[in-house]
Structures are given as structure tokens and as C-alpha cells.
Design goal:
The structure is a single chain. This protein has about 290 residues and is α/β, with parallel strands linked by helices. About 35% of the residues lie in helices and about 20% in strands. The protein has helices spanning about 20-35, 40-45, 65-70, 85-95, 105, 145-155, 175-185, 205-210, 230-240, 245-250, 250-265, and strands at about 5, 55-60, 75-80, 110-115, 130-135, 160-170, 215-220, 225, 275, 280-285. Helix 6 crosses helix 8 (about 205-210) and helix 9 crosses helix 11 (about 250-265). The two termini are about 30 Å apart. It is globular, with a radius of gyration of 18 Å. The strands form two sheets. The protein has a seven-stranded mixed β-sheet with strand order 4-3-2-5-6-10-7. It has a three-stranded mixed β-sheet with strand order 1-8-9. Strand 2 (about 55-60), helix 3 and strand 3 (about 75-80) form a beta-alpha-beta unit.
């Protein structure tokens, strides 16, 4: 798996700070940040042999890169998202372009602004794979609601269907953890939901257990965050939404300044920014 260095580009769930251009933020996510998780998507799809017989439901599909990769392997993909319409619009550009003349492709690709219930129906075949790739385990409260979402998904999947959850690895193996701490420092005294916290060993297992799923294997994947320059790094990290509480507690200028300073130790001689990380995934199955 070859890590990708994000190139410069022209100008989440949660409450975006006032004054932020949500469309620009979504595009920064799609063009700069999302690609950092490509090794995770690849590892999961390879392990579960995603291909022509796969009917995949992506929860919180965002701008759709993971779905696009599954589709390229021959899978039929459905993506749902309730919290990021700007990202979902980009997913439609990627997966359902107006200029596409491939009716067969459009017939096996579906994107819905909503939840699992919005893609159910008597004529919809059961899904045989479910993914929730938005990583949890670095922000207080970032798994809230996920168990309920998974519970609502179970009736749409056959028995024994793999459900994939993703999370940050141990802080000592995630260089980006030191940068994310800026969010907590600036967000005080608002430390609660939305502030950084170190990933815990059983974060994913606890979510699966609450949803009534049975763990059936896990893995760790190197997902380095590589950026062409500091400006790209700042924009990419801001696009995750992890710094929104800090922006709300201070202001955008202060967050940009301190984030730039935190990135300085990770800047290389050629101006690129490089932060090795490890992400974890859990495969749980419906009962």
C-alpha cells in the first residue's frame, strides 16, 4: 500500500463554526484529507474480498471515495449520510456524474441523504457488507449514535454480514495525536463532546457490543498523513471537523496560528508535512 502525498488545491458531522464556508470545507476534505484513509479502505476490501457479488452499504459515506473504490472492484454500492450534504454532493459528482452514459453503473450505485431506513424497501436486496469508515476514538462523544445507527442497519443485512468499524490507533503510534491536542487546549473550558481524547483499546468493540454485533477479527493499517505544504495540512485537518469546538471557543485566526505551530516539527526540508499514523478496523457480524 503506497501512502499518498496530498497535493495543493485551490480555494462533519457536528456544528460548523459560524462564518465557515461549508462547501469549501467539504471540498478540502474530498481533495486533501480523505485520501489519507485509502490504505484503510484497501486493507478492508482486500480482507473481505470485495467484488462483483458485494452489495455494500456505506454509513456516513461523506464524499464517497470509499464507495468509489468498492465500485471499481465491481461492488454495488449504496451510501447514506445525514450530516454532511456538501460532502454528499461531491459523492454524487464522483459516482453519479450527469454526463455518465453508463446506465449499468448508475443502476448499481445509490446515494441518499438520510439513514438506513431511507434505503430499505421490499424490492431492495439485503446488503452483504456494511461499512462505517468515519474513524472514532479521538474525539469525546464521537461514537454517540453509532450503535443506534448500526442497530437500524441490521434488518437490511443478512445473517453473518460483516460490519466494519474504523478508529484511530494508539496515540503513541499516531503522530497526528500531538497536533489534535491543540483542539482540546483551545476548546477549554468547553471540554466535552467535540474535544480530543486518546483512543482506547476497546472503543470499536464497545460500539459493536452495544449494537448487538459479534466481533470477528480486526486489523491495523498504516495511514500516514502527507501534505504538500503546511497550508494544505492546515486545510486538510480543519476539514475533519475536529477543530470546530476550538474555533467556536476562540476564533479561526487563533486556531490556524496554533495549528501551524503544532505542525512545524513534522515539516520536512522540502516543505512537505509528514505524520505517520496507525488506524484500526474491527469486523463485526450480524447475528
Amino acid at each position: 500500500m503506497t501512502p499518498t502525498l496530498a497535493q495543493p488545491h485551490l480555494p462533519r458531522a457536528g456544528t460548523t463554526p459560524r462564518g465557515v464556508d461549508r462547501c469549501a470545507r467539504a471540498r478540502d476534505w474530498a481533495e486533501i484529507q480523505e485520501r489519507m484513509l485509502v490504505p484503510l479502505y484497501e486493507a478492508v476490501y482486500e480482507r473481505l474480498d470485495v467484488g462483483g457479488g458485494t452489495r455494500l452499504l456505506g454509513l456516513g459515506c461523506g464524499s464517497g471515495l470509499a464507495l468509489l473504490m468498492a465500485e471499481s472492484r465491481g461492488a454495488s454500492v449504496t451510501g447514506v449520510d445525514t450530516s454532511a450534504p456538501e460532502r454528499l454532493a461531491l459523492a454524487r459528482e464522483r459516482l453519479l456524474p450527469d454526463t455518465s452514459s453508463d446506465a449499468r453503473r448508475r443502476g448499481r450505485t445509490r446515494l441518499v441523504e438520510g439513514g438506513p431506513a431511507d434505503v430499505s424497501g421490499p424490492d431492495v436486496p439485503l446488503f452483504n457488507m456494511v461499512t462505517a469508515f468515519q474513524p472514532i476514538g479521538c474525539m469525546a462523544g464521537d461514537s454517540e449514535g453509532l450503535s443506534g445507527l448500526l442497530e437500524a442497519t441490521v434488518p437490511l443485512a443478512g445473517r453473518g454480514t460483516p460490519v466494519v468499524l474504523a478508529g484511530w490507533g494508539p496515540p503513541e503510534r499516531c503522530t497526528t495525536s500531538s497536533v489534535l491536542k491543540v483542539a482540546t487546549k483551545l476548546a477549554e473550558p468547553l471540554r466535552s463532546t467535540g474535544s480530543w481524547r486518546p483512543a482506547l483499546r476497546d472503543d470499536l468493540e464497545e460500539v459493536a457490543q452495544r449494537a448487538g454485533l459479534k466481533p470477528d477479527g480486526s486489523g491495523r493499517v498504516a495511514c500516514p498523513f502527507g501534505y504538500a505544504d503546511t497550508e494544505s495540512a492546515v486545510r486538510g485537518l480543519l476539514s475533519t471537523g475536529l477543530f470546530d469546538a476550538a474555533v467556536g471557543a476562540t476564533d479561526q485566526v487563533q486556531v490556524d496560528k496554533e495549528l501551524t505551530e503544532a505542525l512545524h516539527p513534522h515539516k520536512r526540508r522540502d516543505g512537505t508535512v509528514w505524520m505517520p499514523n496507525v488506524f484500526r478496523y474491527l469486523i463485526a457480524r450480524t447475528r
